């Protein structure tokens, strides 16, 4: 990481304040104000859009292999998603993915 | 499904009323304990997750104070991981902040949905609720409030405080433990992939409806197409595309349902 300590603290503080304001929004300042329907609808899909967009390039072009697609990491990703969808258990999915990755890296 | 025999339905009704009576009769302390008790199962998810955050953030180069800064001041798992990932990609600060905030936008929805139940609370009480409003404390409290609509304000706040205590305090402690352990872990373990795996594990259970799946699919496709852009920028375009897709599919599904 090449970021300075100062900048990390800036990220922490701004993100902390921003997140707090999001949580406080309707309970505090906005009250019963009606927001447009499309806006509230889009809020519902923020995690399910942001997180996959963040993770997809990391899976296809992992930094650890210098950006070369890597069968072990692809397989681990696939196992994680499959276990997560089937069991709906986050911890179990992480474990399954981790074991797959460790196993494949050891064997390959 | 065959209809239940009359007596059984009546018995079920009676149990529901019993639960309601018990909820209404609770002292603030008992309501607090009830909130604690019902959130304990969530610790199975929160503790390992926070340990992992501590380890991964330390491996990425954060010191313990910074890890605790994230876990106490931000207090939102997915966005903490997002920020650390983008920081280690050397993304511009503004992109780190915008992306991590975007992950937390859903909490505005929680805030709006709790308002009808907590309208009479004092501004100070609302300020504390806002601080501890995370996925788990929200999910448990809204269920509890809807199930027992006649709870007093004190009972509602006490229950929320119970869930928040069990969800937030272990998050902070386990982050600290993870950061301490992380400093002792050798660098050659394939921890680079711990974060992607964690994100995937978080996303998978969210894919409940066609709208969620469409949002996810479009966001992935766009992120891969835009991967050549400076780091983090593709995300800022891909994520809104996915969100809009989810909203569109939802509107369509509702129209069809009518």
Describe the overall structure:
The complex is a heterodimer of chains A (108) and B (258). With 108 residues, chain A is mostly helical. Chain A folds into 2 domains: 1-33; 47-107, no CATH class. Chain A contains 6 helices and no strands. Chain A has helices at 5-24, 26-30, 37-43, 46-60, 71-87, 90-107. The longest helix of chain A has 20 residues, at 5-24. In chain A, 46% of the residues are buried. The mean pLDDT of chain A is 88. By secondary structure, chain B is mainly α. Chain B folds into 2 domains: 25-195, no CATH class; 207-258. Chain B is 78% helix and 0% strand. Chain B contains 13 helices and no strands. Chain B has helices at 6-25, 28-39, 43-60, 64-74, 77-88, 93-104, 106-118, 123-131, 135-147, 153-182, 194-203, 210-225, 233-257. In chain B, helix 7 (106-118) packs parallel to helix 9 (135-147) and helix 9 runs antiparallel to helix 10 (153-182). Chains A and B meet through helix 1, helix 2, helix 3, helix 4 and helix 5 of A and helix 3, helix 4, helix 5, helix 6 and helix 7 of B.
